[in-house]
């Protein structure tokens, strides 16, 4: 019924730039972990755990923007630019409020936040130094996420890649200057991140208005058409997405609370393997994100059959790319672990956890595509909330504490137990997609 070649061409046009963007995004984190890792286990654990606050914040921002992106993608498919702008205006207000809340907490009570994740006084002290500086970058990151999400929902997927590349280069240069040149340690890493995020936001704003993309408008255009009816409809769809991301992110950070019972060495290994996992997930994330844009555009144009076709094809593509990624990670794991200046024990833990990731990456990728790519962009946000929250809190979190705090198992066994969350989620989400219960047109 549909042309496979046309699908592949369209998918590639969206997915390749998104993949490059995800590679660059995860490379920023990998670069930080690698460069800070040269200072030892305590600094890498401190920065990794301090960034759990940022992770929680950026995931909530992602939830806000993901919900908004559903509308923007469908408004774009419908050809309604004013609808896109009022979504951006609403999301802007939410992003600023969230930024101020997290920034205040990170600046005012960093010691209490770090104590949640670590029992090591040195790790806590280093994390406090890092948080009090990097907190000022939160609002910059939130606004960058908003603009990039808006660009992607309207098919402009290459531009975020360019600005992320600028951020990566700046972060590398600033890390060299502040961490090593000025010998500022973790404080230097925080200053480098703040500088890189500032340049990234400035670049993307200049690019949007210089190129006159559809998301660019006069400041008042983002707010003048917002009314109560729109806000009610908007929040009915978006609030489950925000709660979804918040519950998932809280659960994921609770994993790190559980891992502190395994010690600083184990926590350093978790930070290393987690950063590497993100690097090898980029293909699946790109396919899921690209498919989500295509599904939203199709539903905006009231073409439900095409949306179903896109959902099936994206799930098939995930098998191919995640299998390749898993094999590559398994082969590269011993070499990747050797790059970090940590103890042999930490390297061994990280290497074993990378092998576990290489086996589970297909399940994790397929879950991302079904939840974030298909179900969410089809407007089935309540089901996504239930599936994500239930598996994290009733499977993942109990497994983390059981393995680390109760049974005191090696960290890699606990890590494998936590992966059962993804297995259970798979049995919830795939049948939902195949039964086509997720299809909703939101901008009629």
Structure commentary:
The chain has about 450 residues and is mainly alpha-helical. It has one domain. Helix content is about 85%, strand content about 0%. The longest helix has about 40 residues. The chain is globular and about 55 Å long. The protein starts with a helix and ends in a 10-residue tail after the last helix.
Q: Can you give keywords for this protein?
A:
444 residues, mainly alpha, 16 helices, globular
Mean pLDDT, to the nearest integer, reads 86
Tell me, what's the shape? globular
Instruction: Characterize the largest beta sheet: strand count, sense, and whether it forms a barrel.
Output: none
Helix-and-strand structural type = mainly alpha
Low-confidence sequence ranges: none
The value of Rg in angstroms is 21 Å
SS summary, helix count: 16
What's the domain count?
1
Q: What separation lies between the terminal Cα atoms?
A: 25 Å
Taken in chain order, the helices and strands follow as: HHHHHHHHHHHHHHHH
Tell me the number of strands: 0
**Percent range of helical residues:** over 70%
- Beta-strand percentage range: under 5%
In brief:
The protein is 84% helix and 0% strand. The chain has 444 residues and is an all-alpha fold.
Layout of strands and helices, then pairs:
Elements lengths: L3 H34 L3 H38 L2 H28 L1 H8 L3 H14 L3 H16 L4 H24 L3 H27 L16 H32 L4 H17 L1 H19 L3 H34 L6 H32 L5 H26 L4 H8 L1 H15 L10
Helix pairs in contact: 1-2, 1-7, 1-10, 1-11, 2-3, 2-5, 2-6, 2-9, 2-10, 2-11, 3-6, 4-5, 5-8, 6-8, 7-8, 9-14, 10-12, 10-13, 11-12, 11-13, 12-13, 13-15, 13-16, 14-15, 14-16
